[in-house]
Amino acid sequence: MKLLMGVFGHPVAHSMSPVMHKAALGELNIEGSYEAYDIGPEELEDGIKSMKSEGYRGMNITLPHKVAVMDHLDAVSEEAEAIGAVNTIVNENGKLTGYNTDGQGFLDSVLEQVEDLSGKRVLLIGAGGASRAVAVSFARHGVKELAITNRTLSKANEIAVRCKKWCDSRVLPATMAQAAFTGYDLIINTTSIGMSPDVNRMPMSLETVKRNALVCDLIYNPEETRWLREAEKKGAKTLNGIGMFINQGALAFEMWTGKKAPREAMKQAVLFEMKKQQLSNK
């Protein structure tokens, strides 16, 4: 029986998820399909209902539906509830359960570089949905301290409050965060600042970043942002967002198929598509 999967978003034509999941299906010789569906907010409820009526095994959820979709599901995982957003739905015999693989996907990519996070101090820049997912996953994993800085401090405070049950979490105004850079082991940009085509901007200055800190960017297009290049000049280690994107997709794929996701094949397919798009835009 053909496995039906896809992604709901608005807009969604730019999504790399179909490229990634089709590569995984092909690598494992699974008969299935994965398509992108442009679903506006007013169409979301009907779209979710169609998952049951048309027998979809799973669906990814991207902007702007990650929060609103929770009202239309039969159940939500503990982590997705803590994050307050869903990016993956699994259909088990008509029961739709929402999960969030974003935070765990990024955490997995960090753990490939940093074995033990228990004594680490983490600074998050930005307080959107991606920041919330990363913050909850890191807090639940047991980091020593989690600080969030954002232009709107009330949004940062919402995240800090969510995480207090697991770790020391706090809000820092931008000026204080900048002054405290030298004290953080991981500094993570969760904003879109520096994303193509606006590639010359940086979320903050890296003047005081400590050597051997891990500076991360959730952006993966371009692969190396100016933020990461400047971090390398300061002697910091760097990590872009490609690992998070692949890992979150792989975790969803494994939920839907019960098979180990071919992460390297998925990654190579995404990188190839990105290069192809870059060449066509020149």
TrEMBL record:
Protein origin, superkingdom? Bacteria
Q: Name one GO biological process term.
A: chorismate biosynthetic process
Q: Which residues form the SDH C-terminal domain?
A: 241-271
User: Which pathway does the protein contribute to?
Assistant: Aromatic compound metabolism; 3,4-dihydroxybenzoate biosynthesis; 3-dehydroquinate from D-quinate (NAD(+) route); Metabolic intermediate biosynthesis; chorismate biosynthesis; chorismate from D-erythrose 4-phosphate and phosphoenolpyruvate: step 4/7
Q: Which residues bind NADP(+)?
A: 78, 126-130, 150-155, 218, 241
Q: Which reaction does it catalyse?
A: shikimate + NADP(+) = 3-dehydroshikimate + NADPH + H(+); L-quinate + NAD(+) = 3-dehydroquinate + NADH + H(+); shikimate + NAD(+) = 3-dehydroshikimate + NADH + H(+)
Q: Which UniProt keywords apply?
A: Amino-acid biosynthesis, Aromatic amino acid biosynthesis, NADP, Oxidoreductase
**One Pfam family, short name:** SDH_C
Q: Does Amino-acid biosynthesis appear among the keywords?
A: yes
- The Quinate/shikimate 5-dehydrogenase/glutamyl-tRNA reductase domain sits at 112-192
Q: Which GO terms describe its cellular component?
A: cytosol
Question: Does the record bear NADP in its keywords?
Answer: yes
Q: Where does shikimate bind?
A: 15-17, 62, 87, 102, 220, 248
Q: Which HAMAP family match?
A: Shikimate_DH_AroE (MF_00222)
Q: Which family does it belong to?
A: Belongs to the shikimate dehydrogenase family.
Q: What is this protein called?
A: Shikimate dehydrogenase (NADP(+))
Q: Provide the species name.
A: Alteribacter lacisalsi
Gene symbol here is aroE
